[in-house]
Give the backbone structure.
Amino acid sequence: MTAQDTGSPKARRGRRPGASSTRQAVLDAARARFASDGFAATTIRLVAADAAVDASQVMQFYGSKDELFAAAMAIPASALERFSTAFGGHDEHLGERVVRAYLAAWEGTPAESEPLMAMLRGAIVNENASAQLRAFIESRLLEGTSGRSDDAALRAGLASSMLVGVVTSRRIIGVPTLADADTDELVAVLAPAIQQILVPPATRTTPIEPGSTP
Amino acid sequence: MTAQDTGSPKARRGRRPGASSTRQAVLDAARARFASDGFAATTIRLVAADAAVDASQVMQFYGSKDELFAAAMAIPASALERFSTAFGGHDEHLGERVVRAYLAAWEGTPAESEPLMAMLRGAIVNENASAQLRAFIESRLLEGTSGRSDDAALRAGLASSMLVGVVTSRRIIGVPTLADADTDELVAVLAPAIQQILVPPATRTTPIEPGSTP
DNA sequence: CTCATATATCAACACCTGTTGAGAACCTGA
DNA sequence: TCAGGTTCTCAACAGGTGTTGATATATGAG
């Protein structure tokens, strides 16, 4: 069973009968491979075999491995909505909403989580993925926190990178302690910390309530 | 200037005169390459060229690329001491000490930071590095927190993975907001959050001090 | 001095990679 | 029916990879 084996021992040469759904099949196979094996370990020949197609077909559709990867990393709108709604208000449940949004995005349906997973796994070895993750960490939380204190951007970036770190440890590195915990346990511990980072308790911009510290 | 160029156009064939320091030179070159380029992008031929040595020499010394990588990932005792001392007590500065320990370990002298950097960069693509990072996140903080509440392991793992996430964003992904901030800024924001994760404020085990909150 | 051993280079191996060009089979519209 | 474009397979290329065996030179022990 080598990688080149595309199923039937003698696939006919020309176009297959019926409407073509191969383009989507290739993209699906690529998303799954990139998400689970990373950019470097995913070869065009493997993706082609998964989609039961010749490798040169993948090239004809997507031009190059990088472009295929870019297509596989495209984050669906539904996943982005999760974040937009989570960062709506600045009440005392901001932390919990944000934590739940991150965990849900990486643990939801494959169609949503795989592009994020691919982005995370590819970020270290692929310049494209690195830029995308950079933008994700920088801007995702900022929509909601615009116009607050001057270090709002730093706080948003820190909270985001911390949660990405948690997700990476849990789903990619596979740290047992984190991987075995269920979502509610994680939220219980993480939410207050993230809340404190995003909405720091009374420092100087807001008036200090009397009698807090002697 | 190809990669194979080892400096002199016609290197003599046998052993070089004088005492041999090549073994260490190869290890140093490997550490630097693995730390800056990652496991996959680092080739034995590149390391050999950096050390001005033939590629087969690297194999003769370290057996395989994986074993060379393992040697490059060996974390020096001085770096480990940083963590051991940081997690000493459970006072109200635990968070700050831990945060500073993490940031310092990844920003100190190359001899200390490169193995950690190599571990981080390799963790996604190399099984060996993945296991090492797993162990690092799991056990590093536990030495100090043993015998506390039952979710101490979870809290320690979460704090560790969060800080690894911050370091990754700052030094590997290169998120501008985090990369441009200096250490004290980061500590100011992170320390209270990490403190809260490691030593949760007054739940039930420790008695609440009177008059803290009205 | 002599000889085992560690150090060093060279050439080549078998394999895998992304990518390309040619051509076959099918679909669509005129 | 018959072009024209799309989809699909085959075969091969050029380059890079980790790794190996043969061979040459220096060191160090006896």
Observations:
- The mean pLDDT of chain B is 85.
